[in-house]
Design goal:
The complex is a heterodimer. Helix content of chain A is 61%, strand content 3%. Chain A is mainly alpha-helical. Classes of the chains: A mainly alpha, B mainly alpha. At the A-B interface, helix 3, helix 4, helix 13 and helix 16 of A face helix 1 of B.
């Protein structure tokens, strides 16, 4: 419990300075990296002072993402012909459907990995083909959030900023300096950074073992700071080379929430009322602390069936002893509240309610601080819905920050919410009933042999509600661009890789496009001064209303699916089954 | 063959998203509450 309180106090302390810095960068005042920024603009042909309307901004994102995805696909498939490949990995490891899934995963900031990195990826694939997206996809998310804030803050304006400039400034002024210092801190904490090939050793038991190595620290820092989550090793942050000790564990947790928390303050600062930012921060904090408390209590209580054997009830299965239960559940809440997806414990080993918390966090749209940029713009969508509902309840015209919330904004917010639900529930439903034929299109696509035929549920490790949760979690994680795995699902098959890849694209772009449309529409509106009839949105009451809207939308949309998975499993466990 | 399939899926997905942007802009202009 002490570590949860300590973590939250640290978060509280870093929010304002980080927010001030972000505001300094994105309102254009910061120039200490100008020596690198200006030549980069010239090299890339960027006119940084050119203000884009929302359509141009969105098309720039799509163009950038489409080219990135195709390029990444090609580089992954050709890794056998590229340098830095001491293990000799090639296209046999990186099949077409896996390359599609991986390319979609990394350009969308999901970093879902259907493969074991140390047995699939060359160093080049890790450091160039994929790690570059840890930077770029996070910078895109950050840019979208900043564009939305500009849209809310500007008065009768046509543009919402320049996408290319926002991405460059986010990378140079935010990610690069923090990553340089943070990577060294990780190395000091015991994380390797080397190009040497894996070491073959003989253990004290006389068994030979291969110790995987590589440039881990440089990937680890951006993996957490950019809320990417894709690990250098399959065990992710449970691996002692990614997360060696409690110090690196705390550092990791702070890194994940550093920018998302700072963005709330930046938002308040840029709209000219920091209380607006703190109101959003408060709503996120309530949801976060409630989730981590419920999850920790569930894991501390463990499975009552063990009491009959006279052993400790607390559930340590799937957790690292060096982090313990609170350290693990805190990590799980952070990584799923943010769209990070790094894991320091195996979520499939959690009790039903312990596993429900990370799943629910993602189902809320990851607005509990959320991914870099994605958390803030996701929460601001809920703010629009909350303001609209409040307006209906009290009979006033809904307005936010002095601007009227009209039909268009609500339509866009609902498209984003419904696209998430459609992808998660629709794909889980398909996965629950689909049987893959041996012949025909799916048969022709199959490269994995007999095991990939038959029902999609055949890839689950557990029957019943736990198995259903494994599948629901996978499509939730992909759609929410989280990337963490509940585990227990063999996902490296053509059908899963294709469906999960499409879910990632839906979850990313069917939210970003409505968000930018709202930004563009709001930017054009006039700001009206607050009057006696204005509903205050910088108060504790509004924060609680916002929490309620997030919970109700999440609960109403996904409760039936959760009832079939973790809830019924909990009732079974309580009943001794 | 499979590479071509995934190339086409990617192009089709981004093509649909471009169409969505154009459709959304028409909807936005029709909202008329600026």
């Amino acid at each position: 419990m002490i570590q949860i309180v300590l973590f939250f106090l640290i978060l509280l302390a870093i929010t304002k300075p980080m927010g001030l810095y972000l505001a300094w960068v994105f309102d254009g005042r910061a120039s200490w990296m100008g020596w690198l920024e200006r030549p980069l603009y010239r090299l890339l042909g960027i006119k940084s002072d050119e203000d884009q309307d929302w359509r141009s901004y969105a098309l720039s994102i799509l163009g950038f993402s489409a080219v990135s995805m195709l390029l990444t696909y090609g580089l992954l498939r050709l890794q056998g012909s590229l340098p830095l490949n001491p293990q000799g990995f090639g296209g046999d490891q990186m099949t077409p459907h896996l390359a599609f899934n991986t390319a979609a995963s990394f350009i969308t900031n999901t970093n879902w990995q259907s493969y074991s990195p140390e047995a699939t990826l060359s160093y080049f694939s890790n450091m160039v083909s994929l790690a570059i997206h840890n930077w770029a996809s996070a910078a895109v998310g950050l840019a979208v959030a900043v564009a939305l804030v500009r849209g809310l803050a500007r008065n009768s304006a046509g543009g919402i900023g320049n996408f290319w400039s926002d991405v460059v400034r986010g990378t140079l002024y935010v990610f690069l300096p923090i990553c340089l210092v943070g990577a060294i801190a990780f190395v000091a904490g015991g994380v390797p950074q080397t190009f040497e090939a894996p070491k073959a050793i003989t253990t004290m038991e006389g068994v030979s073992q291969t110790i995987a190595l590589g440039p881990v620290a440089s990937q680890e820092i951006i993996k957490q700071l950019g809320t990417n989550g894709g690990g250098f090793f399959n065990a992710n942050s449970a691996h002692p080379f990614e997360n060696p000790n409690p110090w690196t564990d705390l550092f990791t947790k702070v890194l994940i929430f550093l920018i998302p928390a700072g963005l709330t303050y930046m938002f308040g600062r840029m709209v000219g009322n920091v209380r607006q930012g703190w109101a959003v921060f408060a709503a996120m904090s309530v949801l976060f602390l409630a989730g981590v408390s419920i999850g920790t209590a569930a894991e501390q209580s463990g499975n009552p069936a063990f009491a009959h054997f006279g052993v400790e009830q607390a559930n340590m299965e799937g957790k690292e002893t060096r982090f313990g239960i609170a350290g693990s559940t805190l990590f799980a809440s952070i990584t799923t509240g943010a769209s990070c997806g790094a894991v320091s414990s195996m979520h499939n080993s959690y009790t039903p309610i312990g596993g429900l918390v990370p799943l629910f966090n993602i189902l809320t749209g990851e607005v509990i601080f959320g991914g870099v940029g994605a958390g803030l713009y996701g929460m601001l969508l809920f703010v629009i819905l909350a303001v609209f509902i409040a307006g209906l309840m009290v009979g006033r015209t809904p307005e936010y920050l002095g601007k009227k919330i009209g039909k268009f904004e609500v339509q866009m917010a609902m498209i984003a919410v419904l696209a998430m639900a459609f992808s998660i529930l629709g794909m889980t439903a398909i996965g629950s009933v689909l049987e893959l034929p041996k012949e025909g299109t799916f048969g022709a696509l199959n490269t994995l042999g007999e095991t990939a035929y038959g029902p999609m549920t055949g890839n689950l490790n557990n029957p019943g509600p736990r198995g259903f949760t494994e599948m629901l979690y996978a499509f939730t994680s992909a759609t929410g661009n989280n990337g963490s795995a509940f585990a227990g699902l063999t996902a490296n098959t053509p059908i899963y890789n294709t469906m999960l890849g499409l879910a990632m694209l839906i979850g990313r772009f069917l939210v970003i496009i409505p968000v930018l449309a709202i930004a563009g529409h709001m930017a054009r509106k006039k700001v009206a001064p607050a009057s006696a009839g204005t509903f205050p949105t910088d108060s504790a009451t509004f924060s609680l209303l916002l929490v309620g809207v997030v919970l109700i939308v999440g609960a109403l949309t996904f409760f039936p699916a959760l009832a079939l998975g973790p809830i019924v499993e909990h009732l079974q466990m309580a009943g001794g089954r | 063959m499979q590479d071509l399939f995934f190339l086409l899926i990617t192009i089709a997905a981004f093509g649909l998203l471009v169409g969505l942007i154009k459709g959304t802009e028409r909807l936005r202009q029709g909202a008329g509450d600026e």
